[in-house]
Amino acid sequence: MININNDFCLCDVSVQFQQHQLLQPMSQQEQPQWRTGWEPQLSLSQFNQSQYSAVPAIGRVPYTCQKQVKTIHTYDFSKHQKKLKAKLCPLLGTGLAFVTAKKKANLCKGKKVSKRRSKYTGVTKNSINYQTLIVVRGKKTYVGSFPLELDAAITFDFYSLMLHSDKAPTNFAWKAEDILEMVESFNLNGGVFEPARFHSKLINSS
Questions:
Q1: Is residue 8, in this structure, part of any structural domain at all?
Q2: How far is the C-alpha of 162 from the C-alpha of 164, rounded, in Å?
Q3: Which position among 87, 141, 179, 190 has the lowest Cβ density within 10 Å, counted as fewest Cβ atoms?
Q4: Residue 37, Cα to own-chain centre: how many angstroms?
């Protein structure tokens, strides 16, 4: 099950720890100077501290993190699904792979891999979980957080297929029948993708 409420921040762990401390209840004298986007237009004489401290919780998140909180669940994939299904139809029942696994480009031989990096495309390590990220309309978009690296990789493949059809970069090879099952499962679950259901469908890993 995708978790969009936890581990969504793309900042370093140290920055997240600072955020956690800063988000604790504070006295009026301890209030930090948060960036909300509107205070540069106010002069010091116009600035009202009581109004400023009443900003909702999201306004108390550091500005650099607010810009990164964009999730895949805000997008409508109905048109993408229609295009994908049209591409899948000719291969249904053939047993042929619709897409093949593609190796992650930035995993060079002999290059030291950081703790936040994964061997899978679209996957990063954050705290004890693995995040799935994908580029949508030119913007890096948060998909979900998973205890298992494999679940994060399969989830990336699903959304990559939804977005790019037969041109999708994927971590694994997938048959047309299995992709169609993914889409139908996604729709039946109200737009929630469950990667664990497709572990047995894997053909090949990168």
A1: no
A2: 6
A3: 190
A4: 25
Report CA torsion sign: 73, 78, 79, 85: positive
Using alpha carbons only, give the angle 68, 121, 149 rounded to the nearest 5 degrees.
90
Please indicate, yes or no, whether residues 27 and 90 belong to a single structural domain of this protein. Answer: no
Q: Are residues 141 and 175 in the same domain?
A: yes
CA-nearest of 156, 161, 196, 159 to 175 is 161
| Per-residue pLDDT tens digits for 64-91 | 444 444 678 788 888 999 999 999 999 9
Residues with Cβ within 8 Å of residue 146, at least 6 apart in sequence: 2, 3, 129, 130, 131, 132, 152, 155, 195
SS3 27: coil
Give the global pTM: 0.64
